[in-house]
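ingest -> validate -> predict -> emit
validate: passed (alphabet ok, no gaps, 321 aa)
predict: started
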Amino acid sequence: MTKRLLRALATSAVLGLGATATYAAECIAPANPGGGWDFTCRQIGKILFDIGQVDKPVQVSNMAGGGGGLAFSHVVNERADDNELIVAASQATATRLAQNAYAGMTADQVRFVGAIGADPGVIVVAADSPYQSLGDMVDAIKADPGSVAFAGGSAAGGFDHLKVLMVLKDADFTDITSVKYIGVDGGADAITQTIGGFTQGMTGDMSEVVGFLQSGEVRALAVLTEERVPGFEDVPTAKEQGFDVVAVNWRGLYVPKDISDADFEAWGAKLQAVADSDEWKEAMAANGLAPFTKVGGDFQSWVDGVIADTVDLSKEIGVIQ
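emit:
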């Protein structure tokens, strides 16, 4: 190896150390720039610095691959005790872990530190649908499961499919494999199926249906949140209609498993500070997110419950054994 190459490598190493030292922490977005995980890292990282929760900017690293599996494996195998690392996550992360999409890796190999916003799940029907409430639709399915078909933007067994099954399970309907579901390429296609009468309902996220609600082409039977969504106060929750179901595509973070409890709680406190900030409220409003704040141990317990429920449902419909 030449002296010139050695000097170049040494210089590169020094520059790398210097670059790392200019950041307070790193946030891995397990996807390419522009998606939901990238948004989570960039917005939370920026606000952490803007409101003084960290004394230097947060570095954002995009690590696409395996629907989040590459980043998950990287954290588990190479950075399990890195207390300056946070990773963007969402309901898709929990669903994929529950369905063993990360090649045998499990949710307990990291710690879920918090969620501070969510895209609310919704169930909508065409404007001229005979169903006026979620109860009307559930009663129709109980009477004749084949009479109601749903379209959604995820594949069969994905989160959109599971939203409907969660409601039916809560209504003590057990024959969930008889419920018709058509997975199409995105929420807009799913709504088109419903408006056109090919399906009787659409299951998706609020951000996917806003324009169609405003144009009057569809009606929302329920939003799957704890409380009604600001700006859509006329849409009742499933809970107030007697179905104890919350199904939201939450936006949050996980951290390496082997960091200390003190570091875990510190990240939870920082995330809570972001959630309480005016800057985050503005970011949610600009990006169609609803308030959804769970941090620290409470969030970890909630995610554990969501994953367990997803495993059970996924087994019932044959997605996993």
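Residues 156 and 231 are 31 Å apart (CA to CA).
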